[in-house]
């Protein structure tokens, strides 16, 4: 009985720890969009003065999943935030997680258009 309780407790703890993990690879369009967005967000400043702001950004990847070109397609109106968005794209490159995809799916991710916004998790 004690072993069953310990296994149940261990299973609970492992399950709790696993729920907060961010994916490190993707397998379909939806999971890849989430992965790219999470990676960009993790490199984006979490400054409260940017709350409610967002930037539309477009970038292109080469065959090695490296960002080779980028542009802001809709500026935030705050130069500091726009610069931070570009820095987040550069810091997120390469997107090696996408290289596990079949070539036809990976090719869809070579041209990325996203709206990015600062997140405030844990602040």
UniProtKB/TrEMBL annotation:
Pfam families: TonB_2. The keyword NADP does not apply. The keyword Ion transport does not apply. SUPFAM superfamilies: TolA/TonB C-terminal domain. Keywords: Signal. Transmembrane segments: none annotated. This is TonB C-terminal domain-containing protein. It comes from Pseudoalteromonas phenolica. The lineage of its organism: Bacteria, Pseudomonadati, Pseudomonadota, Gammaproteobacteria, Alteromonadales.
């Amino acid at each position: 009985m004690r072993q069953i309780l310990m296994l149940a407790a261990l299973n609970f703890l492992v399950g709790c720890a696993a729920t907060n993990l961010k994916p490190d690879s993707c397998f379909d369009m939806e999971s890849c969009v989430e992965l790219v967005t999470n990676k960009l967000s993790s490199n984006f400043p979490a400054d409260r003065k940017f709350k409610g702001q967002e930037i539309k950004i477009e970038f292109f990847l080469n065959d090695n999943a490296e960002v080779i070109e980028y542009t802001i397609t809709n500026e935030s109106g705050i130069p500091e935030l726009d610069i931070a968005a570009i820095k987040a794209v550069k810091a997120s490159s390469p997107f090696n997680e996408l290289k596990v995809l079949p070539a036809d799916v990976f090719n869809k991710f070579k041209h990325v258009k996203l709206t990015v916004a600062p997140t405030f998790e844990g602040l």
